[in-house]
Amino acid sequence: MHLFNRLKELLNKMKIFLISASVIIVILFIFRSYMMALDNKAEEQNYRVIQKDLSFEIRFYPSATHATIKSKAKTYQELSGPEFRKLADYIFGGNEVKKQISMTSPVHMDINDTVSTMSFVMPSSYNLANLPKPNNSDVILKETQDEYVAAIQFGGFASD
Asked: What is the mean pLDDT of each run of 10 residues along the chain (160 residues)?
């Protein structure tokens, strides 16, 4: 009888483990699907590839509307933390009409020894005339000039 009770207890534990594992797998699948859907919805700034190399490409980006912050940051890590949050706050409703603005890609960063900047490209449906005013005076709305940039594509997180 004792062996039967232990076997029954073991089967109950296995059942709980399998149910828990199944729930975790389903949650991870839903989260991954949600993240993929977000990636597919993000508008990407228009560009034209001018030259392609094995490790990078030269791109032409036409003028676009950006939300930009300036910073004394000297590294990617210094710029990407609090400064990113200022821009994210603006597009998540931190503006005079509390309007949410869709995230786009890429995020432009210029890190140097004097003044570094980070910019979010505004969706193509926006321009300086129809963008809401930021609540944070550190966020500057501007039209960029046409530009050529060297671009490296990679997965994961950026670093210096």
From this structure: 76 80 71 58 88 94 95 86 89 94 88 91 94 96 94 75
Conformation bin of residue 117: beta by default, left when phi > 0, alpha when psi is -120 to 50: beta
CATH homologous superfamily for 46-151? Regulatory factor, effector binding domain (3.20.80.10)
* Residue pair 57/133 in contact by the 8 Å Cβ criterion: no
- Beta strand spans in 7-146 (E): 43-44, 48-52, 57-61, 65-71, 104-105, 107-110, 116-121, 140-143
Q: Is 74 exposed, middle or buried (0-12, 13-18, 19+ CB in 10 A)?
A: middle
Domains in the chain: boundaries: 1-29, 46-151
